[in-house]
Amino acid sequence: MKKLVGTIAALGLAAAAGSAIASTTVVYQNDFDTSSTAAGVTAAVAGPQAIGGFGVTNYGGVTGSFLYNDTGNNYGGGPAPQMTTFTLSNLPSHTALDVDFHLMFIDSWDSTNGGAGVSPDYLEIYLDGVLWGQLTAANTSGTTNDFAGGTQTFGPGNFVYNGYSDRIVDMSGASGLTFAHTASTFTLGIRAGGTGWQGGADESWGIDNIKVTATLRDQTGAIPEPGTWALMILGFGSAGAALRRRPAVSVA
User: Fold this and answer.
1) How far from 151 is each of 26, 76, 146, 159, 215, CA to CA, in Å?
2) Does 246 fall in a domain?
3) What mean pLDDT comes out for the span 96-104?
4) How far apart are CA 115 and CA 122, in angstroms?
5) Could you tell me what percentage of the chain is helix, strand and coil, using 3-state DSSP and rounding each to the nearest 5?
6) Residue-level pLDDT at 120
7) In sequence order, what are the residues at sequence separation of 6 or more whose Cβ sits closer than 8 angstroms to the Cβ of residue 133?
């Protein structure tokens, strides 16, 4: 009898597990022509927010408007580059986030092994205030292009100022941008860095096609799907048959 009860309990657990529903939802999307958030979610952009535009021309998956930041001048001893942040609040209950976007390395970027005094130039990405990676591009000097798992979709070529090479990188292939996360808020921060950063019209960076997708927590206790119902009926039917086959017990 104990074995039978254990079997029934196991079937119940299996049914409950089968009724768990895991899903994903896009909580924020912004291509700087239009933006949207999931129901209840709020989004705030802080820091430099200059807007450029490509019109209808497609540059490596980027069209229309984009945000760019050309502040600061480490090389000239001027003010430090300023960070642009995207903060999401009131996120639904979730277990993980996936963050996608296109990055632009605009004008005379010098990589880690670039010219003396003008390198390195870094593009720093922060997740909830923690440095996730330092990317670099060899647009003008050096040979190192480090996109932290992102895929270059344009360049070296020119789309802003004549005479300089530019690059566009799709970061959706960077596995580190899919990560465990449960807090109700999330902040993506981006800024330039490195002792060679010139800023202004010499070097700048851009971002477009931001999309943040949340993996929602399993919703247990939901109505089981047809396959789960079939498993439950089969299991309880087998349990009933086992009870009928048990021999009668004589009582003295």
Assistant:
1) 22, 31, 10, 18, 24
2) no
3) 98
4) 14
5) 15, 40, 45
6) 95
7) 124, 125, 148, 174, 176
Q: In whole angstroms, what is the distance from residue 46 CA to residue 189 CA?
A: 9
In a domain, 229, yes or no: no
Total of domains in the chain: 1
Q: Which pLDDT band, with edges at 50, 70 and 90, does 219 fall under? A: low
pLDDT tens, residue by residue, 109-153: 999 999 998 999 999 999 999 999 999 999 999 999 999 999 999
Pairing of strands 94-107, 186-193: unpaired
Coil, strand or helix: which one is 16?
helix
Measuring CA to CA, which residue among 50, 54, 69, 63 is closest to residue 203? 69
- Measured distance CA(247)–CA(17) in Å, rounded: 34
Residue 249: inside a domain: no
Task: Please name which of 218, 190, 153 lies closest in space to residue 21, comparing C-alpha atoms.
Answer: 218
The token duo for 237 is 């039917």
Q: Does residue 5 sit within a domain?
A: no
Domain CATH code at residue 39 = 2.60.120
Sign of CA dihedral 169, 173, 174, 178: positive
Q: What are the b/e assignments for 150-166, b being 16+ CB within 10 Å?
A: bebebbbeebeeeebbb
Domain holding 45, by residue range, is 19-216
CA 103 – CA 169 distance, rounded (Å): 5
Q: Which residues contact 240 (CB under 8 A, 6 or more apart)?
A: none
Report which secondary-structure segment, H or E, holds 144.
none
